[in-house]
């Protein structure tokens, strides 16, 4: 609840019962008014444009009413109310962490030694609590397994159905991961693969990848996941100048593996938001194109940082490994978690199917469950 509210024409200052204070600008309060003329009651979407707000907007009164804030704006002579909890949640008059390369709220970075977060196929399909826990693991850790599923082909599509939709690419709605003769992609061989993010040559990249095991009697072929955010944190601690180089200059990625397909992107290996938050990793040696956007006098230092990041990623202590059994799958946040594979022999069989999906669907499903099904957390 609010204790007091004071104002001048352009700023309202409130004191919460927690003892904290916050200031809000008149134009910000007007733009975010919660009345039905400003926001649609059904979906909360804004019904006004910035041009609809008078350029000379001002506050003529501000007072605490029933624990919330009641404000009257001029020259509209419009009065609106803001709940105290809403103001506290949207307070922007506060100290901010401006550390370059920091991770966002709810992100848990990790390295080898953690138990892979996992859900049971039947439970996540039947129980809101189990589904919510599984989705929350993907959001926080960037990956999670799913066990106890069917061995029927295309079962991976039902994994995507838990939260969203398959993102179809030139590989189709899904792709096969098994040894092929004359493969169009190294993923279709028995070779080991360095930890990498998929499809860095796309803009935007597919933000989630699902790999589903149908057969796995071959020797080897264990899956490995590496937290790219933890790797970036280590690079920043060991070599802040190198971290800044990989974040400050775009790398280039390219794929021309089949007729009619030529995909290219120009993005940094370490991607930061405008205010410095770590938001993405693109790392894939197979798809790297020549780097031509780094100045001559910084290219050697750039390559040294690239090598150092690769050494961190390749460190066995960084990876969590597991061998998928038939009916098991795992999902990775492809903007963050790298995945690798040990080589496997021609004896036996190894058949996985993979597909892509979008993280916004998963985060939307999780957020909707948190709002509408709080009992799922119990």
By CATH, the architecture of the largest domain is named: 4-Layer Sandwich
Largest sheet: 6 strands, mixed
Number of helices: 9
Strand content: 25-35%
Return the CATH class of the largest domain: Alpha Beta
CATH topology of the largest domain: Double-stranded beta-helix
**CATH homologous superfamily placement of the largest domain:** Clavaminate synthase-like
Explain what the structure shows.
- The protein is of the alpha+beta class and 378 residues long.
- The chain folds into two domains: 2-89, NE0471 N-terminal domain-like; 118-377, Double-stranded beta-helix, CATH 3.60.130.
- The protein has nine helices and 20 strands.
- A six-stranded mixed beta sheet has the order 7-8-18-11-20-9.
- The longest helix is centred in the C-terminal third of the chain and has 19 residues, at 296-314.
- It is globular.
- The chain starts with a strand and ends in a 6-residue tail after the last helix.
- Keywords: Dioxygenase, Iron, Metal-binding, Oxidoreductase.
- Pfam families: GBBH-like_N (PF06155), TauD (PF02668).
- Residues 6-87 form the Gamma-butyrobetaine hydroxylase-like N-terminal domain.
